[in-house]
Amino acid sequence: MYSVQTGLEAMTRSALIWPVVLICLWASSTSADEIARSLVVTATAYNSLPEQTDDEPHLAAWGDLITPGMKVIAVSRDLIPEGLDRHASVTIEGLPGVYLVLDKMHERWKKRIDIYMGHDLAAARAWGKRKVEINW
């Protein structure tokens, strides 16, 4: 049998469909910057020592103060437009936890990160130079 919808029933069905449509539109508008990214980079380590930086070794390039114990990295400037901008959260293959981008490297470096190791020069030297996958 054929049944005729009342105005109220049609409005109720329409009201249930719109949230689904809006969620689909929102999901399809997610920008590339919001999608998790990964990249293999060269990773070195650095310390808060005047001989490695300048006369203010705890002052990062964006003006943030960094202190031993913080999980911080510096990024080569070519990675900044890729989404590794100031305050980006990064995981590093082989290291526990999440690191924060608070420093940037000299323009000469490409596809590179520098892992902050406070005052522990021995740890930085032991890390050396490695290829690692990072995720952000």
Description:
By secondary structure, this protein is of the alpha/beta class. The protein has one domain: Barwin-like endoglucanases (Beta Barrel), CATH 2.40.40.10. Helix content is 21%, strand content 25%. A 6-stranded mixed beta barrel has the order 1-5-2-4-3-6. The radius of gyration is 24 Å and the shape is globular. 21% of the residues are buried. The mean pLDDT is 84.
Secondary-structure blueprint:
Elements: H1 7-28, E1 38-46, E2 72-75, E3 89-92, E4 99-104, E5 112-116, H2 121-127, E6 130-135
Parallel strand pairs: 1-5, 2-4
Antiparallel strand pairs: 1-6, 2-5, 3-4, 3-6
- The CATH topology is given as Barwin-like endoglucanases
SS-based class: alpha/beta
**Portion of residues within helices:** 10-25%
Main sheet characteristics = 6 strands, mixed, barrel
What is the N-to-C succession of helices and strands? HEEEEEHE
Q: Going by CATH, what is the homologous superfamily?
A: RlpA-like domain
Total count of helical runs of at least 4 residues: 2
The total domain count is: 1
Radius of gyration: 24 Å
> Overall mean pLDDT score?
84
Outline, from the CA principal axes? globular
Strand segment count: 6
CATH class: Mainly Beta
Distance between the termini: 57 Å
- Percentage beta strand: 25-35%
